[in-house]
Amino acid sequence: MIVAFSVTPLGVGEDVGEYVADAVRVVRESGLPNRTDAMFTSVEGEWDEVMDVVKRAVAAVEARAPRVSLVLKADIRPGVTDGLTSKVETVERHLGA
């Protein structure tokens, strides 16, 4: 499964990068395949391990912010591994054709 999620602290002002970094640090330290861009962090693995990482990432932000917003999108596809990379490679292949 791949989960793309965004954690945003609320009530801390406009500069939220430091708080978001706390969440991304949790993801990177999880050891699961992941990728971060300007809008979302995507993480790949089994349901329980991915959801545990999301929960811990939210908790890291929640520890310092009075309110937290979570946006989450999941691609649940049993048996597929390395989807985080292969999905992008497929699109790139079509773009190059």
Automatic annotation (TrEMBL):
<feature type="domain" description="Thiamine-binding protein">
    <location>
        <begin position="3"/>
        <end position="92"/>
    </location>
</feature>
<dbReference type="Pfam" id="PF01910">
    <property type="entry name" value="Thiamine_BP"/>
</dbReference>
<protein>
    <submittedName>
        <fullName>MTH1187 family thiamine-binding protein</fullName>
    </submittedName>
</protein>
<dbReference type="InterPro" id="IPR002767">
    <property type="entry name" value="Thiamine_BP"/>
</dbReference>
<dbReference type="InterPro" id="IPR029756">
    <property type="entry name" value="MTH1187/YkoF-like"/>
</dbReference>
<dbReference type="GO" id="GO:0005829">
    <property type="term" value="C:cytosol"/>
</dbReference>
<dbReference type="InterPro" id="IPR051614">
    <property type="entry name" value="UPF0045_domain"/>
</dbReference>
<comment type="similarity">
    <text>Belongs to the UPF0045 family.</text>
</comment>
